[in-house]
Amino acid sequence: MAGLRARRGPGRRLLVLSTLGFCLMLQVSAKRPPKTPPCPPSCSCTRDTAFCVDSKSVPKNLPSEVISLTLVNAAFSEIQDGAFSHLPLLQFLLLNSNKFTLIGDNAFIGLSHLQYLFIENNDIWALSKFTFRGLKSLTHLSLANNNLQTLPRDIFRPLDILSDLDLRGNALNCDCKVKWLVEWLAHTNTTVAPIYCASPPRFQEHKVQDLPLREFDCITTDFVLYQTLSFPAVSAEPFLYSSDLYLALAQPGASACTILKWDYVERQLRDYDRIPAPSAVHCKPMVVDGQLYVVVAQLFGGSYIYHWDPNTTRFTKLQDIDPQRVRKPNDLEAFRIDGDWFFAVADSSKAGATSLYRWHQNGFYSHQALHAWHRDTDLEFVDGEGKPRLIVSSSSQAPVIYQWSRTQKQFVAQGEVTQVPDAQAVKHFRAGRDSYLCLSRYIGDSKILRWEGTRFSEVQALPSRGSLALQPFLVGGHRYLALGSDFSFTQIYQWDEGRQKFVRFQELAVQAPRAFCYMPAGDAQLLLAPSFKGQTLVYRHVVVDLSA
């Protein structure tokens, strides 16, 4: 028996140990804590919080129950779209002390429960208008101590219940891009810590909340290419006839006066008709007593007057213009004096004479020879103070001013504009109570002169080598001057009311223009630039709000 007990000892001990081990395993298993949720190596996590340092991207394998996330010293610089969309329960997000430079559109999309967002002490220099889209529960937002110089308009619009905003420590440039923020700060219920301007110098260290809105001059304008007419032209004249808008263009290259019609539906100029004119230099439309006439001035082959026949819907020649009187026309000017219609032709030949024609019953008849033997280049009719005047410019002498005599029923020479020895073009405009002349010169500076009651005085000289055309014009409350050149692009100047001078405003890619023409067409304000060397360009005047 004893031997038997001895032989059974080891087996029984093994059984007992096995049984004990099994029991211990059961005991240990029963006391094991719950399984730890997933957590990236760079983070410390609990069931609902995560604190991450030196992460190379926004951690993806975080517990879905996380409601608080902190990222510090992250090893990436851009927060991309939907970067946190895998954490839909997030309520607190702290992104301080990183090197973030860019936050993409919709970076926080999907975080509809987020209440606190802190993005402080980073290098963010710009934000998108849609950066905070979807954050409908956000109450606290801090962008303090970044490099923000401006903020897009309405960036805070999606934040319906935002109660606290911190923008301190940013180098805000208080120009027109910040105007909306000044307006928003004046009306929002959000508590905003005081923020200060870093620039421009006149607003430096000023509190943004205290900036007066009147100090922001944020409306500017621009001329943008609107339509290209694929042909050269040397004159452009808009006109209204039977409630429609038309444009007459002299095209010597096409041997025609081309008539275009404004299409109010397509908002474009369309081909309408053509008048044969092998060497046209000017096509001047005139609507007299409801009838449409076009004076066609040509360098060779004589000049003519055409009449539009509404019954046959075509132009027919009405009369010739005396070729012995008008030899080399250069410009046409049409006007009314005391109810009578006139047109004048500037003649640039050695033997011709600038002449005046008057409408009488059924045609235009020679009324007066104005200026002979002087190579006249341009005409400008001025009807101011009840005293009609005609100014004639010449390439061989100073411009001459004629005044209408109601007694003699003709123009009488009044004097010369002695400040300019020669001029290719002459135009006028009024600014306030003052009258001005603009004179372009091919060699030498173009001049701006002001009428002083008894004489003109020079107020400005504009560099303009090779200039044959200039035109002052008014669009809304904006006054401009277009100055062309055969050797460089066209310059647009804008009138500075304070300085009473034109300042350079914009350069247009128009070479060798022969005229400029302002044409309002419905809500489109157009500037036409017929060019002798290239296409005729149509620019549209647009108003730009820099605070938008």
From TrEMBL:
<keyword id="KW-0325">Glycoprotein</keyword>
<feature type="repeat" description="EAR">
    <location>
        <begin position="363"/>
        <end position="406"/>
    </location>
</feature>
<dbReference type="GO" id="GO:0044224">
    <property type="term" value="C:juxtaparanode region of axon"/>
</dbReference>
<feature type="domain" description="LRRCT">
    <location>
        <begin position="170"/>
        <end position="219"/>
    </location>
</feature>
<dbReference type="GO" id="GO:0008021">
    <property type="term" value="C:synaptic vesicle"/>
</dbReference>
<dbReference type="InterPro" id="IPR001611">
    <property type="entry name" value="Leu-rich_rpt"/>
</dbReference>
<dbReference type="Pfam" id="PF03736">
    <property type="entry name" value="EPTP"/>
</dbReference>
<dbReference type="GO" id="GO:0005615">
    <property type="term" value="C:extracellular space"/>
</dbReference>
<feature type="repeat" description="EAR">
    <location>
        <begin position="222"/>
        <end position="264"/>
    </location>
</feature>
<protein>
    <submittedName>
        <fullName>Leucine-rich repeat LGI family, member 3</fullName>
    </submittedName>
</protein>
<dbReference type="InterPro" id="IPR009039">
    <property type="entry name" value="EAR"/>
</dbReference>
<feature type="repeat" description="EAR">
    <location>
        <begin position="410"/>
        <end position="453"/>
    </location>
</feature>
<keyword id="KW-0732">Signal</keyword>
<keyword id="KW-0964">Secreted</keyword>
<dbReference type="InterPro" id="IPR032675">
    <property type="entry name" value="LRR_dom_sf"/>
</dbReference>
<dbReference type="InterPro" id="IPR000483">
    <property type="entry name" value="Cys-rich_flank_reg_C"/>
</dbReference>
<dbReference type="InterPro" id="IPR003591">
    <property type="entry name" value="Leu-rich_rpt_typical-subtyp"/>
</dbReference>
<feature type="signal peptide">
    <location>
        <begin position="1"/>
        <end position="30"/>
    </location>
</feature>
<feature type="repeat" description="EAR">
    <location>
        <begin position="501"/>
        <end position="543"/>
    </location>
</feature>
<dbReference type="InterPro" id="IPR005492">
    <property type="entry name" value="EPTP"/>
</dbReference>
<feature type="repeat" description="EAR">
    <location>
        <begin position="455"/>
        <end position="497"/>
    </location>
</feature>
<keyword id="KW-0433">Leucine-rich repeat</keyword>
<dbReference type="Pfam" id="PF13855">
    <property type="entry name" value="LRR_8"/>
</dbReference>
<keyword id="KW-0677">Repeat</keyword>
<feature type="repeat" description="EAR">
    <location>
        <begin position="268"/>
        <end position="310"/>
    </location>
</feature>
<dbReference type="GO" id="GO:0017157">
    <property type="term" value="P:regulation of exocytosis"/>
</dbReference>
<dbReference type="InterPro" id="IPR011041">
    <property type="entry name" value="Quinoprot_gluc/sorb_DH_b-prop"/>
</dbReference>
<dbReference type="InterPro" id="IPR051295">
    <property type="entry name" value="LGI_related"/>
</dbReference>
<feature type="repeat" description="EAR">
    <location>
        <begin position="314"/>
        <end position="361"/>
    </location>
</feature>
